[in-house]
Design a protein that fits this description.
224 residues; alpha+beta
Length: 224
């Protein structure tokens, strides 16, 4: 968690209001602002049962450079358990989307032109190139068009009129796997399960958590 005083000041410059008598000096006001920002960050991804007294105790101990009251192994186990609970709750929340994506993939896999890899990635060869295949360490140039399974477009280099360049190992798992199978000059349609795409987090407002994605990908060139 990173606290930026200048960033905080910039935000609150837009929201001038009366200052509480309790925070009458710039030191108190800045201290309160840092704490407020930390609270906002915690609330952006809270978990059920979070305890403000324990949270404040952790902040105070860290600031005062005293030994933590909970050892690293116990903390690791606690973080792991909380993560599992949050993931389970999110899976319940997005159960319909998960089931819809799986049903789409199950039906799609029955088509003769679709290949399913051991990871669950599905692809369809639209045009077969004759060039080299990139490796995980390659950088490539591609054109692509990405949609949700309902056909809604969330990103397209074709629409921007500008190919994209990126490292093969620096994209979602489904792309990393597919690109290493594609000869240069190929155009494939990828059907990417959520666990090979953006998973439980989603991506921005356009791609919800647990979204199955469809991409047309054209491998133009291996840059290095």
């Amino acid at each position: 968690m990173r606290i930026c005083v200048l960033h905080f000041a910039h935000i609150f410059k837009k929201k001038r209001r009366l200052v509480s008598d309790k925070f009458s000096t710039v030191e108190l006001q800045a201290s309160y602002g840092i704490g407020y920002q930390m609270g906002q960050q915690v609330m952006s991804n809270p978990f059920e049962g979070i305890d403000l007294d324990a949270l404040q105790a952790g902040i105070a101990d860290a600031f005062n450079q005293v030994a933590p009251q909970v050892d690293n192994d116990t903390l690791g186990a606690a973080f792991g358990e909380i993560h599992k609970r949050m993931q389970a709750a999110k899976e319940v929340q997005f159960k319909a989307a998960i089931e819809e994506g799986q049903a789409f993939l199950n039906d799609n896999a029955k088509r003769a032109e679709v290949t399913v890899t051991p990871s669950g990635l599905q692809y369809e060869v639209l045009e077969e190139g004759q060039g080299e295949k990139p490796t995980a360490s390659s950088t490539v140039k591609t054109h692509y068009h990405g949609t949700l399974i309902n056909g809604s477009v969330f990103d397209s280099s074709y629409e921007r009129g500008q190919p994209a360049e990126f490292p093969v190992g620096g994209v979602i798992k489904g792309w990393t796997e597919a690109l290493q199978l594609m000869p240069v000059g190929s155009k494939w349609r990828l059907y990417v399960p959520h666990e090979l795409a953006y998973g439980e987090q989603g991506a921005g407002g356009a791609i919800a958590p647990y979204s199955t994605l469809v991409f047309d990908v054209e491998l133009l060139e291996i840059l290095g």
